[in-house]
Structures are given as structure tokens and as C-alpha cells.
Amino acid sequence: MQTVTHRQLFFQHIAQTSDFPLGLEIERAEGIYLYESDGSRYIDLISGIGVSNVGHRHPRVLEAIHQQLDKYMHLMVYGEYIQTPQTQLAQALAQTLPPSLNNVYFTNSGTEAVEGAMKLAKRYTGRSEIISCFNAYHGSTQGALSLSGDENFKRNFRPLLPDIRHIRHGNPTDLGQITTRTAAVIIEVVAGEAGVRVPEPAYFQALRQRCSETGALLIFDEIQTGYGRTGTFWAFEGVSVVPDILLCAKGMGGGMPIGAFISSDELMSVFKNNPILGHITTFGGHPVSCAASLATLQIIQEQKLHEQAEAKGQLFRQLLRHAAIREIRGKGLMLAVEFDSFDVLKPIIDRAIANSQNGLGIITDWFLFCTNSMRIAPPLIITEEQIREACTVILEAMD
Ligand code: PMP
Fold first, then answer.
1. How far apart are the C-alpha atoms of 226 and 238, rounded to whole Å?
2. Which of 46, 109, 250 has most ligand 1 atoms within 8 Å of its beta carbon, as the pocket-test mutant?
3. Is 102 helix (H, G, I), strand (E, B) or coil?
4. Per the count of CB atoms within 10 A, which of 36, 72, 100, 370 is most buried?
5. How far apart are CA 321 and CA 12, in angstroms?
6. Distance, CA 49 to ligand 1 centroid (Å)?
7. Dist. CA 39 → ligand 1 center (Å)
8. Which of 204, 208, 206 is nearest to 216 (CA)?
9. Which one of 17, 137, 197 would you pick to mutate in the ligand 1 pocket, going by the greatest count of ligand atoms within 8 A of its CB?
């Protein structure tokens, strides 16, 4: 009898999202490295798309998970029992934030944090219009997808949410579209899937002012940028503007699934009545994920990983000098290396991955709405030597 490979099972039984999955068969992950069953080794230069900020399987995250597993896993749906992993994490988050962001609603993912925040904004303001940015990605569920600034990804799933309007990220001219009809503006401080676009702090100050004038809530989606990615623990610290609602997920869990939307207790309290149970979830704030997230937060803060991100990002910029590179954008360890076109970039990415044949593959990719730019967002724990190693392979792949 012929044995079926896991590769065959993957294509037979795992729902596919494209005709060209990366298809690496990873057996083990540790720090910045991924290992395939045939022994191939890779540097994960994209942190599993913005997740493994403290690296894969950080020992302190594992320890926190083990300790929590020995106590309890799921006990009850969200919001009923006092679960110390949740309360400790919420307190630790609040301590990283201004006093107006002191109330945390835990979710399982980024898109659920977006959904919760949209509902909160509609319920609190009594308005329905929500504004997001062209080329923004906020998630794949129907509410979050409605916010997406790219018609290609939405067309065949309509009808989606009505009353969504789009503005240009970083363009002050468009701020006039925010009016007293607007429930909320949801925006990334650094636009990730648009190809890592970093507006001036003055833009966010003008945005904050316009939202305050019109009574629209300002929601910062820090699902990619939070937990130290851009050089400060939260990216919004770099623009001196405080949002009404903050979203996080991805890197927050240290490899476990968790997200959150955070606001003032006054704002969040509207979920308690009219109707009661205004937003509920079974698994949101899973105690094991919360324990992992608290350990992740502590590692980043104690080791000041966020404070090293800018210098490490600069090292990438210094090392990645090549005639094929048009521009390098970014903040901290969230970088986009731009080439002339996807056709130039794609073979470079493929060759960097295939370099596993020579002992070390480098995993990078491109952006949903910016296909001519290479994503570089490694674990924050990456060392100078490892950055040099990774850049050597990338440069060779360009030649
Ligand atoms: N917002 C942003 C800015 C994101 O980058 C993503 C995921 N790429 C999401 C929301 C959705 O998060 P999730 O995939 O956890 O639902």
C-alpha cells in the first residue's frame, strides 16, 4: 500500500486559500528559526506575518503556558468569572497605556477586535458611518472586510456593511470627510498591507483634532504595530496622539491566538445594557493565551526589545544596498523593501527561501496591497549577526 504524504493530505483536506501556498513542512520552530522535516533551516524574517515578536517558542512564554495548563483552560464564556490570567494581562496592558485606555475586551483574533470596536463605536455614538483607508487591511470577516480599501477583495462578497467611506492614509486633505455623521475612523499608525507607509506625526495630530471636533471616535489598529514592532511598545507613542479605541492581536500572544480592543471604562460600559450582552464571545481572552501574552509583554519590556528595534531596522537599511532596490520604507523592525515590480521581487523571494539548500533559507514575502515590496518584520530578538546573515542571503538572491 502506498503511504500518503502530509503534503498530499494538505492539498486534499486542508482548505486552500490560493493555488500557490508556500508549502513548507515545518517540524520545529525555535527563536528566529524554522526547521523542516528534512533538516532544512530558515530564518523567519516575517515572524509568521507579524506574530512571533519574541521569537518562536520563547522559553518564558512556554513556561507561562505550562503553568496555566496545570491550573485551568476554558472555564466559562467571556466576562463571567474572574480569571487571573485575564486580570493580570489587562492590568499590565493598562500600565503601558494612558489612563483613558484602561478597559480591555479580549478577543481571539485581530479581525474580532476590529468587529468589536466597530460595534462599540456605533453603539456609543449612535452613528453608523465608519471611515477607513484605501489599501488598508483590517481582517477577513464581513465587518472588517467592509473596511478593506480594495474592491478586488470585496466585490464577490457583497452585500457588505453599508455606510463605509474611505480616505487616503496620511493625506490631510481627506480629513474633511470626517463629519458629525461619522461613528469612527479606523486607521493604522503605520499602514502595513499598503506596503508600510509612515505618515508624519502632524497628520495624526490633525486627524485627532478632526475626530474630536466631530465626535467621531478614533480607532488605532495596532494589530501589526503593537507589542514593540515599530520601536515603541505601541506605535501611537511615536505620534503623540491618543486614540479612543486601540486594537491589538498578532504579536500580542507570543504565538498563541489572542486579540483585544481597549478603550476607557466609560466607553466600554455601553456593552452592558440596551441590549445586555452587547458583545460576547466563548473563547475570547482564553486563559492560556492571556498567560502567554503577559509573558510576552514582560519579555519585551524587561529586555527593552522595542527600544532595539529602530537600530536593528537601520542595520537592515545599511546592509540592503543594491541597484535593484528602489526604496526602503518603515519604522523599527517593520520594513518594506521596494523593487520595480512583483516580477522582479518574486524570484528574489523564491531564491532566498530556496537557499535552504545551501544551509539557510530566508522567509520573506510581499504585501496584500503592495506587491512590488518585500516584507521584512523579523522577531524583535534577532541579533546583529543574524541580520547580517539574512541580508547576505537576500543580496545573493538579488544578484
Ligand atoms: N488588522 C491588521 C492591520 C492586520 O494586519 C490584520 C492581519 N493581517 C488584521 C487586522 C486581522 O487580524 P487577524 O488575521 O488576526 O484576524
1. 12
2. 250
3. coil
4. 370
5. 42
6. 9
7. 31
8. 208
9. 137
Name, in order, each residue with C-beta under 8 angstroms of 73's C-beta and a sequence gap of 6 or more: 286, 287, 288
- Number of Cβ atoms within 10 Å of the Cβ of 212: 12
pLDDT digits over 274-313, tens only?
Answer: 999 999 999 999 999 999 999 999 999 999 999 999 999 9
Gap between the Cα atoms of 13 and 161, Å rounded: 32
Grid-cell match 488605532, residue found: 220
Alpha helices in 282-323 (DSSP H): 287-302, 305-319
User: Angle 384-398/342-354 helices, nearest 10 degrees?
Assistant: 120
**In Å, how far from its chain's centre is CA 48?**
10
71-76's contacts with Cβ under 8 Å and 24+ in sequence apart are: 71/287, 72/287, 73/286, 73/287, 73/288, 74/282, 74/283, 74/286, 74/287, 75/287
Q: Please give the model's pTM, rounded to 2 decimal places.
A: 0.97
Q: Considering only CA atoms, which residue is closest to atom 11 of ligand 1? A: 139
Closest to 246 measured CA to CA, from 143, 78, 113, 134: 113
- Ligand 1: centre distance to CA 114 (Å): 9
**E strands, 135-207, in order:** 164-167, 182-187
d(CA 286, CA 295): 14
pLDDT of residue 311: 98
pLDDT band at 2 (very low <50, low <70, confident <90, very high): confident
pLDDT tens, position by position, 93-148: 999 999 999 999 999 999 999 999 999 999 999 999 999 999 999 999 999 999 99
> In 3-state terms, the chain is what percent helix, strand and coil (to 5)?
40, 20, 40
Name all residues whose Cβ lies below 6 A of ligand 1.
109-111, 114, 137-139, 188, 192-193, 221, 223-224, 249
Mind listing the domains of the chain with CATH numbers?
A: 7-57+304-398 (3.90.1150.10), 60-302 (3.40.640.10)
